[in-house]
Fold:
Amino acid sequence: MINLILGIGVTILLLVLISIGVPVYSSFAAAALLITVVLGSDLSYMVGSALWQLGSFSLLALPLFVMAGFLMENSGVTTRLILWVKSITGSIKGSLGAVTVISTALFGAISGSNASAVATIGTIMIPQLEKEGYSRRYATALVACSAPIATLIPPSIAMILFSVTAGLPVIACFLSTVVPGILITSGYVLYNYLKVRKNPEIKVYEKKDFTSFYREIGKRSLEGLPALLMPVLVLGGIYSGMFTPTEAAAVAIVYTLLVGFVAYRKLTIGLFYSSLVRAGTVTASIMLMLFCIFCMGRGLMLGGYPEMISDFVINASGGNTFMVILILNITLLIMGMFMDDCSGSVLAAILLLPLATNAGIHPIQFAAIAGTNLGLGNVTPPCAPLLLMAGGISGISLKEYFLHGMKLSLTVHLPVVFLTSYIPQISLFLPQLLLDNM
Structure:
C-alpha cells in the first residue's frame, strides 16, 4: 500500500514542481530524495546505478550530435538546405510553408533535436513567411508544430536516450520513427497547401520555363551538395553498418567542420568556439537531468512501481490491448505537455515500457508510440514548450497563435499517433526489413 501511495505522491510532486517552473532536473532530484526517505533505499546504490547508466557508450552520441547541430547552424548548412528545397517548390502557391516543414525534417536528419529545429528554422523562416503573406500567427504555429518531426527523423537524441534507458538497439529505435515522421511531414505540407491556396495575400512566384526551372534546381543542388550529403553520410553509414550511431555523430562533426571551414567558408574560429560552449552547456544540462531521472527511476524500480502500474492498468482494462494503448497515449501526451522530449523519453522507458510489453506491444513499436505522443504533447497547452519557444522567436503571445497550432496538430499529428499506436507495421516495417533478429 505504501508503494502505491508513494507512486501517486511522486507523480503529483513531479507535475506540480514542473508546472510551477522548477527546473526538470531539480524536480526529479526532489522525487528521488522523496523515494529514498520513504522507502529507506540505499542512496549510494541509486547514485552508483545512475552513474553506471551514464557511462553507456551509446550516450556518447548525445554531445556529438548536439555539437553537430550547433556547427550546422553556424556553417551555412541550414540556409543551403532551405534554398535547395525552395528551388524545387518555389512556383507552387504556399511553397514556403512546405519549405519550412521539409527543412525541419532535413534539419532533424542531422541534429536530432526539436528545440534546435525551432530555434534554427524559426529564426530563418518566420520572417520570410511573413514577407510572403503568411500571418505571423500561422507562421509561428507552423514552425512549432513541425519541430517534433526533428525527433522522429533519425538520428534522434530522444530515441538515443530511450534506447539506452530501455536497453534496446539504438538503430531499431531510430528506424521505428521514420515512417511516422514522413507521414507527419507529408500531412503538414498538404495541410499548408490546402489552407493557403485560396488566400490572395500569399505571394506566388512566376512560373519559370522548363530550362530556367531546371537550371535553378541545378544551381541550388550544386551549392547545397555538401549540405545534402551530410544526412546521406550519417544515415547511410549507420544503416549500412559502416559505423555505429556514436561514430556517425563523430563523422557528422568532422564533415560539418570541413563544410563550414572549406566548402562554405562561413565557419570561423569564434563561431566554432561558440558552438563548443553551447554544446557543452546543453549536454551538461541534459546529463544532469539524466542523472536525476536515473536515480529516481532506480528508486521506483526498487519499490516495484513500474510493475505495479502495469498490473493495475491491465487489470483495470480487463487485459484489453486497445484500452491499454489508449491509456498509454493519454499518459504520454500529458508527460509531453509538461516536459521536454528527452526527459519524457527516459521516463517513458522507465515507467511505461513494462506496461506496454506486458500488454503485448513490441518494445520497438512503443519507442515510436512514445516519440509521436511526446512530440504532440510538446505543442499542446497548458505548457506546450515548443509553442512557447516559437512565440518567443516571433514576439507574440501564445493566445494569438494557439488555435492555429491546435488545428495543425489535431488535423495531422494526432491521426499519425493513432496509426502508429494501432498499426504495428508502421513502426516495425523498417526495423524488420533492414535489421536482423527483429
Observations:
- The CA atoms of residues 158 and 342 lie 5 Å apart.
- The chain has a mean pLDDT of 84.
- Residues 2-434 form one domain.
- The first helix runs from residue 2 to 19.
